[in-house]
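Let's sit down with a protein and look at its sequence and fold side by side. Once you have written the record down, we can walk along the chain together.
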Amino acid sequence: MEQFNNVTIIKKANTYFDGKVTSRVVIFEDGTKKTLGIMLPGEYTFSTDVKEEMDILAGHLEYKLQGEDWKVIDGSGVFYVPANEKFQLKVHSVVDYCCSYLAE
């Protein structure tokens, strides 16, 4: 999906890691939520409350889910994070991403 139609966008940015990771919340008519953001180079650990789809639109990073080996995305790609887990990122270049919060 190249664009989102009929959505509400929260203007205030979510900022993490001293501004090195930022995102904006997009809410759809059915109540589902996504965030659109940018990550600057660095190493980060995130935790989830619900299952997440991380859609990497551009950039170069490595990611590690609990109990798995490091994997690489260079350009674009998608990975899924289970609910109530932590995951690690090593961001090597600016990453453009879209995170979808999924009902299980």
Notes: The longest strand covers residues 21-28.
